[in-house]
Design goal:
single chain; alpha/beta; Rossmann fold; globular
Length: 261
């Protein structure tokens, strides 16, 4: 069958169906690093599912930022430590966009206190989100991410820096690193990578909350680059790990901290 002619009389090029978009779930996608990552992945052509815990307005604003520049995104509420809610989050991604290729688990909680003074109820809440929440999310990711995909979790460079008052938070993130490294090995044969990004001090609400200007300035001066990271700095690292260009990086902790040692 001949191709239809174009207005100038020449044969029009054959039209091929466009490939479906790659799909990313970003937990904690309504703010901070998660929000920056959602926007960055959308710029790479991903359809994005913005997972959020309670900030509906912020999540909808994150979606609007993606849609305004021509991307596709939806917001889905889910408590990351609730296995039924997380399963529903993945169900929503599959129903809306057809599958899941990348999972970025940026949701997390931080509470700072000396180990001797830590309220154990606060400790339990922190670990419920950071440890159980990570386990629940990557469990679904391990079952559902399509070949060629990527799973990215978040740790912290505090594990190496050992700042006082970060004991409970650092302990929870040490668990994330161990879990992710084991996951990478358990995904053998699936063509799916699993890596952890461990930011240094980053200018997010989570980091800045409760810190005075002197403390922030001191932390900003520590990297040789002499500034805090921005969410966009970290999002670039995540985008690389999620991309085909980063697919040979697997089972690693990437310490994105500007050179703090």
């Amino acid at each position: 069958m001949p191709l239809p002619a174009s207005p100038d009389g020449t044969a029009a090029p054959e039209q091929r169906p466009s490939a479906p978009p790659r799909v990313a779930i970003v937990t904690g996608g309504s703010r901070g690093i998660g929000r920056g990552t959602a926007g960055r992945l959308a710029a790479d052509g991903y359809a994005v599912v913005v997972g959020y815990a309670g900030g509906r307005d912020a999540a909808e604003a994150a979606v609007e930022e993606v849609v305004t520049v021509g991307g596709r995104a939806v917001a889905v509420r889910a408590d990351v430590a609730d296995e039924h809610a997380v399963a529903a989050l993945f169900d929503a991604a599959e129903a809306e966009f057809g599958g899941v290729d990348v999972v970025v688990h940026a949701a997390g909680r931080m509470h700072l206190a000396p180990i001797a003074d830590m309220d154990l109820a606060v400790l339990d809440d922190l670990h419920r989100t950071n440890i159980r929440g990570t386990f629940v999310v990557v469990q679904q990711a391990a079952r559902r991410v399509r070949p060629g995909g990527a799973i990215v979790t978040f740790s912290t460079s505090v594990l190496g820096l050992a700042f006082p008052r970060y004991g409970a938070y650092a302990a929870s993130k040490g668990a994330v690193e161990a879990l992710t490294m084991i996951l990478a090995r358990e995904l053998r044969g699936r063509d799916v990578t699993a890596n952890t990004v461990a930011p240094g001090p980053t200018a997010t609400d989570l980091f800045l909350d409760g810190k005075d200007e002197e403390t922030v300035a001191r932390l900003a001066a520590q990297p040789p680059l002499e500034r805090l990271a921005t969410p966009a700095d970290i999002a670039e690292v995540v985008a690389f790990l999620a991309s085909p260009a980063g697919h040979w990086v697997n089972g690693q902790v990437v310490r994105a901290n500007g050179g703090i040692v």
